[in-house]
Design brief:
Blueprint: H1 7-14, H2 54-67, E1 71-75, H3 78-89, E2 95-99, H4 104-114, E3 120-124, H5 129-133, E4 138-142, H6 154-164, E5 167-171, E6 189-193, E7 207-211, H7 214-227, H8 233-243, H9 246-264, E8 273-274, H10 284-290, E9 297-301, H11 305-314, E10 319-320, E11 330-333, E12 345-349, H12 355-367
Parallel strand pairs: 2-3, 2-4, 4-5, 5-6, 10-11
Antiparallel strand pairs: 1-7, 6-7, 8-9, 9-12, 11-12
Helix pairs in contact: 1-2, 2-8, 3-4, 3-7, 9-12, 11-12
The structure holds pyridoxal-5'-phosphate.
Pyridoxal-5'-phosphate is lined by residues 77-79, 82, 102-103, 142, 146, 171, 173-174, 193, 195, 205, 207.
């Protein structure tokens, strides 16, 4: 497949099948835990469903193409993918940097499960990560950060990691491969939750690791085989099916996010708005240099927790949900989960509703308060 295609074309092509007359146009799931073995032992590609399945291979080749990687591995969730990548790259004695302002469960895992193994865990915000990387062996960056939407300059960070021989892992969940390709900016591995915009329908959990260092990817494959953190075949197929339309969905989500950010920044009930696509957002210069789209997340500050709940209750279109990337526009009050943000801080995930309907609904709900 040519790399010159646009993202939507690449997603459609990557999730399709070879044009063989009489065969299905879209891939079908192969639901199997066990496969027939050959007397020619070792010749089979698939033997047991924890090792490999045909459905994974189709999904993984699509994920690798979208990320611009030579290989990808699917996992049972984003956390399964991220923790596998941390276990393979950080060893006792290593200094590991994790985001202080990213997805909170990752730093919790590092503190609770990696630090006791003799790995020195350091937390750094998007602004602190360049200095922290100077003393690290493994750096995990998340950009844009969830939930504050700060952007890490990946080219700069990759340069620091390269100079010191540190490995750079980038969580690409919020941007998606349609928003940025961290491997092309110098990352060693992409880790991500596919539960969000790639799956896009709030109905499955999945994760993946993508990279072009085949020894490292082989070590990750072995980690997955032995830890068993696999994606079920049905979910793999459902994700693949959803990914064919991610270009359309993500385009609308980014469009709606920018429209919401623009409308909300001048609303008297909104303290501040963060969206990397706003020209005066502090993240905008770096985001413009490394992102192809600015994503579907917008963060806003309202007066307090009650104001966030009232916004959802007075709206016809908003749903309260702690995931993001789905077709419905959703709101999550992040202080509820312990994120270091104010009580009235809400992360909005733009859905695919008609933009005018969404704006009228959200502004109407705020005005009614
Ligand atoms: C940035 C980020 N990374 C990773 C994860 C974990 O993904 P999952 O819930 O699929 O395990 C999340 C979940 O919200 C996330 O926001």
């Amino acid at each position: 497949m040519t790399d010159d295609y646009g993202d939507s074309t690449r997603a459609v092509k990557a999730t399709g099948t070879e044009p063989i007359p009489g065969q299905p146009v879209g891939p079908s799931p192969v639901l199997a835990s066990a496969f027939h073995l050959s007397p020619d032992e070792g010749s089979e590609q698939d033997t047991y469903g924890r090792g490999s399945t045909p459905t994974w291979r189709t999904l993984e080749s699509a994920l690798a193409r979208l990320e611009g990687a030579d290989a990808a591995l699917s996992f049972g969730s984003g956390m399964a993918a991220i923790t596998a990548a941390l276990r393979v790259t950080a060893k006792p004695g290593s200094v590991l940097v994790v985001p202080a302002d990213g997805y909170y469960q990752v730093r919790r895992y590092a503190a609770e499960n990696l630090a006791p193994l003799g790995i020195t865990v350091r937390e750094a915000t998007a602004a602190q990560i360049y200095t922290a990387a100077e003393g690290a062996d493994v750096v995990l960056a998340e950009t844009p950060t969830n939930p504050a939407l700060d952007v890490v300059d990946l080219d700069r960070l990759a340069g620091i990691c390269r100079d010191r021989g540190a490995r750079l892992l980038v969580d690409n969940t919020t941007a998606t491969p349609l928003g940025q390709q961290p491997l092309s900016l110098g990352a060693d591995l992409v880790v991500a939750s596919a539960t969000k915009a790639l799956a896009g329908h709030s109905d499955l959990l999945a994760g993946y690791v993508a990279g072009s260092d085949l020894d490292l990817m082989a070590a990750l494959g072995r980690e997955r085989l032995l830890s068993g953190a696999i994606l079920g075949s049905f979910e793999a197929w459902l994700l693949l099916r959803s990914m064919g339309s991610v270009g359309l969905r993500f385009e609308r989500q980014c469009h709606n996010a920018l429209a919401l950010a623009t409308a909300l920044r001048s609303h008297p009930k909104v303290g501040f708005v963060r969206y990397p696509g706003l020209p005066d957002d502090p993240s905008h210069p770096v985001a413009t240099a490394q992102m192809r789209r600015f994503g579907g997340l917008v963060s806003i500050q309202l007066a307090d927790a009650a104001a966030v709940h009232a916004l959802v209750q007075r709206s016809d279109l908003l749903v309260a949900s702690t995931s993001f990337g789905g077709i419905h526009t959703s709101v999550d009050r992040r202080a509820r989960w312990g994120d270091p943000v104010g009580d009235g801080f809400a992360r909005i995930s733009a859905g695919i509703e008609d933009t005018d309907d969404l704006l009228a609904d959200v502004i109407g709900a705020l005005d009614a308060g």
